[in-house]
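Progress note, sequence design subtask.
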């Protein structure tokens, strides 16, 4: 097409028909511009298609990661809630003056800590490509909130409980207990004497409060946010 216009221009110049030459020159430029615009449009369409394909793939991966997080968090939440319930059982039985093997088993479930590590591979890939690859702005914000804020607070709450275990319980276990089987049972040297010490009762109550106001609350918040995220992702994947 370009070569054809070139021949026509040359012929018009030879015939000294300047006006027609200019018309054909403008026409040639117009066609070139149209061709470039079409090429850009096709390229943009291809890029948009690639972005949408990536969005669907990364959302599927993030959805899988969140499902895994949900299962693991639910397990740790159940353990933490059970531990706090058993502290109530321990304190109630001690108040009643009943000292038996149940206390040893319950303590084995209580004097523990929860651990959790999020599977965030999908979100890390998304960040490396650019969060704008997600077209839903609310989903963008909620993903950032979960992975960069909620999980940070959850890790801190879990670490607080673990530090309490290491710094407060371990010295007592070494001094006051003759048997310790993690998550199974723990037996004081003298059960009655151990529980008659008010400092030990306070220790249980502090541990219970640390879990209730810290890790349990943060675990519940994380589960709620995961549920909301999975709902948004499901809508976006339709």
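Output:
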């Amino acid at each position: 097409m370009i070569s054809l216009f070139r021949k026509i221009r040359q012929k018009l110049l030879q015939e000294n028909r300047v006006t027609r030459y200019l018309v054909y020159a403008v026409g040639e430029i117009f066609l070139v511009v149209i061709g470039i615009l079409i090429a850009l449009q096709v390229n943009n369409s291809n890029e948009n298609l690639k972005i949408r394909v990536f969005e669907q793939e990364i959302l599927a991966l993030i959805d899988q990661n969140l499902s895994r997080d949900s299962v693991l968090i639910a397990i740790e939440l159940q353990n933490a809630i059970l531990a706090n319930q058993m502290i109530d059982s321990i304190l109630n039985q001690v108040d009643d003056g009943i000292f038996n093997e149940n206390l040893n088993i319950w303590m084995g479930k209580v004097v523990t800590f929860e651990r959790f590590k999020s599977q965030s591979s999908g979100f890390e890939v998304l960040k490396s490509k650019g969060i704008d690859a997600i077209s839903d702005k609310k989903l963008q914000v909620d993903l950032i909130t979960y992975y960069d804020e909620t999980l940070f607070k959850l890790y801190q709450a879990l670490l607080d409980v673990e530090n309490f275990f290491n710094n407060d319980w371990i010295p007592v276990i070494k001094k006051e207990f003759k048997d310790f089987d993690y998550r199974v049972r723990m037996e004081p040297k003298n059960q009655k004497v151990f529980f008659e010490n008010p400092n030990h009762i306070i220790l249980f109550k502090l541990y219970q409060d640390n879990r209730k106001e810290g890790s349990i609350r943060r675990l519940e918040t994380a589960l709620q946010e995961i549920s909301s995220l999975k709902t948004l992702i499901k809508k976006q994947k339709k």
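The chain has seven helices and two strands. Work on this subtask will continue into the next period as scheduled.
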